[in-house]
Automatic annotation (TrEMBL), chain A:
<protein>
    <recommendedName>
        <fullName>Elongator complex protein 4</fullName>
    </recommendedName>
</protein>
<dbReference type="Pfam" id="PF05625">
    <property type="entry name" value="PAXNEB"/>
</dbReference>
<dbReference type="InterPro" id="IPR027417">
    <property type="entry name" value="P-loop_NTPase"/>
</dbReference>
<comment type="similarity">
    <text>Belongs to the ELP4 family.</text>
</comment>
<feature type="compositionally biased region" description="Acidic residues">
    <location>
        <begin position="228"/>
        <end position="238"/>
    </location>
</feature>
<feature type="region of interest" description="Disordered">
    <location>
        <begin position="422"/>
        <end position="442"/>
    </location>
</feature>
<feature type="compositionally biased region" description="Polar residues">
    <location>
        <begin position="511"/>
        <end position="531"/>
    </location>
</feature>
<comment type="pathway">
    <text>tRNA modification; 5-methoxycarbonylmethyl-2-thiouridine-tRNA biosynthesis.</text>
</comment>
<feature type="region of interest" description="Disordered">
    <location>
        <begin position="163"/>
        <end position="185"/>
    </location>
</feature>
TrEMBL record, chain B:
<dbReference type="InterPro" id="IPR027417">
    <property type="entry name" value="P-loop_NTPase"/>
</dbReference>
<protein>
    <recommendedName>
        <fullName>Elongator complex protein 6</fullName>
    </recommendedName>
</protein>
<dbReference type="InterPro" id="IPR018627">
    <property type="entry name" value="ELP6"/>
</dbReference>
<comment type="pathway">
    <text>tRNA modification; 5-methoxycarbonylmethyl-2-thiouridine-tRNA biosynthesis.</text>
</comment>
<comment type="similarity">
    <text>Belongs to the ELP6 family.</text>
</comment>
<dbReference type="Pfam" id="PF09807">
    <property type="entry name" value="ELP6"/>
</dbReference>
<dbReference type="GO" id="GO:0033588">
    <property type="term" value="C:elongator holoenzyme complex"/>
</dbReference>
<dbReference type="GO" id="GO:0002098">
    <property type="term" value="P:tRNA wobble uridine modification"/>
</dbReference>
Length: 592, 316
């Protein structure tokens, strides 16, 4: 036996499982379970912070993000504390998604759903091919060279999203039979796992998960009846024995009760660094218990301040957040809170789509949180913006990103999506402006089987995924489902990987020529399109695009409508976007 | 020395400090956080070896220490020396957080745990790449007393009394030598409003504190959120206007009207408060002591560039 040992970097080893250090300010980060959201936050959610997610209306993408957060916590063996009022927290935990690749052996994957990721696969394939072509000598890349818009061939590839780190699925599948998740050593636990929305969390993983569930609805009832000694339905180790504060229980105050329970969990689990389980016992020497033994407490609060959360004054929630922040700052924990923000504010604010949806109440809540994002799904939108951007499921607004231990948020330095200017994107201060400024990206999101992707928002290229250049005659089966169209587009993408598709991602009007030819070649294919066409004069990549798009005429307008949406100065040419105004984009939601 | 490019635009009579007995009100918006200005004044006062009392209603000590390090100021040694006092207004400010106290370790033991774990986590893990265990930071060997804590009380008067005690304590410690200047910084007044105290009481607190620090040759700096959206709420609007009314100097931080930009993060409006105008009328103010003007700024890693409108690096 050799006496030589491989030296492992100790700084990494001392971190708790599933954590990493920020490359910018050395903050300990945990993953939200969504790589692109991690990117926006500057690599991950810093410990001790609160992320506020303003929910979409009519869909539940906000809750989906919360589920990703909790599921990632279960992967990492973290403590998960779920608070929910509208839905029972148990239901939320049970409906968590499975890990991609782990349960595919059980053949839960239907072939119909599988197609949804084909588009991504095809794109990845293309990208790989392009990378290979770039590495090869000039002879090979000669045919890939642009012949028309050759000026643009020197530009770097247009990237709209963040590539997830490919997880080691193969090793996981091999182990899945024999070992369980927590058997992995901390260094083996991925920072961000890839999940599969078509599968459910396995019973074994659920069993092993360290969860504490707080049903605020039950709590509400107990509070009202004055029953101070209530039981919460916790799964395992944690039980509410000693009441945190006798004084607090006397007043019927839901938020106080929830906070008391959170505090108790943090203290009992040893997540807090200042508050001790037993104050009289001597404090353990600092640093003696290595960080590796530490675990993280993930607090997920679903739909806080929904009508089922009753409070006497709005100050209750302010105080709750302030106290929670004070608690978390000195704890190994982080919180993700979703809030149905659309329930607040005036009527025109509720229907506004340009980022001014924030009401003063929500705005004050944002002040008390460290990060705040807003999800706006097209399914719930009043306008038909969805038709012009069927590739996305909605818009993603970043209102605030965490600034900790530094002057500028780390995402300003690190984020690919925010592109160097985290500030002011969609902030209410700029709500009146067109928002057309360089450096601030509009973000959209799409949900695929294996990922929740937040990308820079741009119009799909003409003749691309769901669009078509020539106007089609009104056909009877105009309500073609999206999956059908996706299928057809993906098949043609795979069947025709010529130079036209290769230059597909080049920015600007370089697409004009290639896409035209491609669209022409597709002219004869059976491609169902609804009637009506809308000309969108627009510039791809320009910010403020989202807002401009909201100004499109409502759907159902027959005939050619030319709405000249002028956009702020940009060098690229106009994109003539002939396509059906009406599309089945709203049906593109995954039914999870 | 703070942000060098901002310095020329600030009152010059006591440069780099603010004239004593005055109130500087900083108002900001969510899109453009005004917190970076506080760091400027903290580092200026510490560098000049004056007293600083910082009430962290939104930020924690670690945050200010870390940023101070980037600006070249060691707040940890300043704390041991006694001319930097941090008051924790985060963990036990509300009645919701009051039971926290029950779980606090006994004073003798609370020092190491509160000082090292979260506080120095980022520092130590980055600093030690070779050691197997996390090395103790030097500060932990002789830890200064844990920060004073503002604990909950239904009346803001009690908060005032606590602060008064701290300020007197700080001033008396360093009274031996020449009379030092003092700055009291409240890092987020809006928090007090959010935590349920009425606007009138918060304003009264500001007025009292202004008078209090004036006694100790000091200056008061407050930060308040003044988003346009918040003006719809009476109490919030009242707080912003009330503080501005008390102020001698006003710095208004907001984003550009035309939206965010890579080269310009926002604009600073240096304005005259009513207090300044009164003194000007009385002839107590030198000409051009505080020129009212609007500047643009860009925050960098460890500095902030302040420049005239249209002089950003992207334009020139």
């Amino acid at each position: 036996m050799s006496s030589f040992k491989k030296r492992v970097p100790s700084a990494q080893a001392t971190l708790p499982a599933g954590c990493r250090l920020s490359a910018y300010n050395g903050q300990v980060l945990i993953s939200t379970g969504v790589p692109s959201l991690d990117d926006i936050l500057g690599g991950g959610l810093p410990l001790g912070t609160i992320l506020l997610i303003q929910e979409d209306r009519q869909t539940s993408y906000g809750q989906l993000l919360l589920k990703y957060f909790l599921r990632q916590g279960i992967v990492a063996g973290d403590k998960c504390l779920v608070v929910s009022g509208d839905e029972s927290p148990e239901a939320i935990v049970r409906s968590l998604m499975g890990i991609a690749g782990e349960e595919s052996l059980e053949s839960q994957v239907q072939s119909g759903v599988d197609n949804r990721d084909d588009e991504d696969e095809a794109r990845r394939e293309r990208r790989k091919k392009a990378a290979a072509a770039g590495g090869a000598d000039d002879e090979d890349s000669e045919q890939d060279r642009l012949t028309i818009a050759w000026r643009y061939s020197g530009l770097k590839k247009f990237e709209s999203g963040v590539e997830a780190r490919p997880p080691a699925i193969s090793s996981r599948v091999n182990k899945a039979g024999s070992t369980t998740e927590p058997a992995l050593t901390p260094s083996q636990i991925p920072f961000c796992e890839q999940f599969d929305l078509t599968t459910r969390i396995s019973a074994k993983a659920l069993e092993l998960a360290d969860t504490t569930l707080i049903d605020s609805g039950e709590l509400q009832k107990a509070v009202q009846t004055g029953d101070s000694d209530l039981e919460d339905d916790s799964d395992d180790d944690f039980s509410t024995s000693g009441s945190a504060s006798a004084a607090g229980k006397n007043q019927p105050d839901l938020y106080r009760n929830v906070l008391d329970k959170i505090r108790e969990t943090l203290i009992q689990g040893g997540f807090s660094t200042t508050l001790l389980k037993d104050p009289s016992a001597p404090a353990p020497a600092p640093g003696a218990a290595g960080l590796a033994e530490r675990h993280i407490c993930r607090i997920g609060i679903n739909s806080i301040a929904s009508p089922s959360w009753r409070s006497k004054t709005p100050h209750d929630l302010y105080k709750f957040l302030h106290a929670l922040r004070g608690l978390l700052r000195f704890s190994f924990g982080a919180a993700v809170i979703t809030i149905p923000a659309h329930l607040y504010g005036t009527i025109d604010q509720r229907h506004a789509t340009d980022g001014s949806t924030t009401s003063p109440y929500i705005h004050r809540l944002e002040q008390l949180c460290d990060a705040s994002v807003r999800i706006e799904s097209f399914a719930g939108a009043q306008t038909n913006a969805s038709s012009a951007a069927s590739a996305y499921h909605g818009l993603f607004h970043v209102h605030k990103v965490p600034v900790l231990n530094a002057l500028i948020p780390s995402s300003t330095k690190l984020s690919v999506l925010l592109d160097g200017a985290a500030k002011g994107s969609g902030g209410p201060g700029q709500s009146g402006s067109g928002g057309s400024s360089k450096g601030v990206n509009n973000l959209g999101f799409k949900v695929r089987r294996k990922r929740f992707a937040i990308e820079t928002f741009h119009l799909p290229p003409e003749g691309g995924v769901g669009q078509r250049r020539t106007s089609a005659e009104p056909s009877s089966n105009s309500s073609s489902s999206l999956s059908e169209r996706k299928k057809s587009s993906s098949t043609k993408a795979s069947s025709d990987p010529g130079p036209a598709t290769g230059s597909f991602k080049k920015a600007g009007s370089s697409e004009e020529g290639s896409v035209q030819s491609r669209a022409r070649s597709l002219g004869g294919s059976s491609f169902n399109k609804p009637s009506g066409q809308v000309d969108v004069h627009s510039v791809p990549g320009a910010s403020g695009m989202a807002r401009k798009m909201m100004g499109l005429p409502p759907k159902g307008i027959q005939g050619a409508v030319a709405s000249g949406c002028s956009t702020g100065g940009s060098e690229a040419g106009h994109n003539h976007n002939h396509g059906g105004a009406e599309s089945g984009a709203n049906s593109s939601l995954l039914d999870f | 020395m703070g942000y060098a490019s901002l310095e020329p635009h600030l009152p010059s009579s006591h440069a780099p400090l603010l004239p004593p007995g005055t109130l500087l009100s900083i108002s900001d918006t969510q899109a453009s956080d005004g917190n970076f200005l506080l760091h400027h004044f903290i580092s200026n006062y510490i560098k000049a070896d004056q007293n600083v009392v910082l009430v962290g209603l939104a930020g924690i000590l670690v945050h200010y220490t870390m940023v101070g390090r980037k600006l070249g100021v060691n707040l940890a040694t300043a704390r041991t020396k006694g001319n930097f006092q941090f008051v924790d207004g985060l963990t036990q400010l509300t009645d919701y957080a009051a039971p926290n106290k029950e779980y606090l370790a006994k004073p003798a033991e609370s020092k190491p745990s509160s000082q090292t774990t979260t506080a120095t986590l980022p520092i130590t893990t980055t600093a030690t790449t070779s050691g197997a265990r996390i090395a103790r930071p030097a500060a932990a060997v002789t830890p200064p007393a844990p920060p004073k804590v503002l604990s909950y009380s239904p009346k803001l008067v009690d908060l005032y009394r606590t602060l008064e005690e701290i300020i007197q304590d700080t001033a008396s410690k360093t009274a031996g030598s020449s009379q030092k200047q003092l700055v009291l910084i409240l890092d987020d007044l809006s928090v007090l409003l959010n935590c349920g105290w009425p606007c009138r009481d918060v304003l009264a607190l500001v007025r009292y504190l202004k008078l209090l620090v004036a006694k100790f040759n000091g200056t008061l700096i407050t930060l308040v959120h003044a988003d346009g959206l918040m003006a719809e709420e009476v109490s919030q609007d009242g707080l912003v206007k009330g503080v501005l009314y008390e102020a001698d100097y006003i710095i208004d931080v907001r984003g550009l009207d035309s939206g965010g930009s890579r080269d310009v993060h926002g604009q600073l409006s240096l304005l005259h408060g009513p207090g300044y105008l009164l003194r000007q009328r009385a002839g107590q103010v030198r000409e051009n002591e505080w020129p009212a003007l609007t500047l643009h700024y860009k925050i960098l890693d460890n500095n902030v560039e302040v420049f005239a409108k249209g002089y950003s690096s992207g334009v020139l």
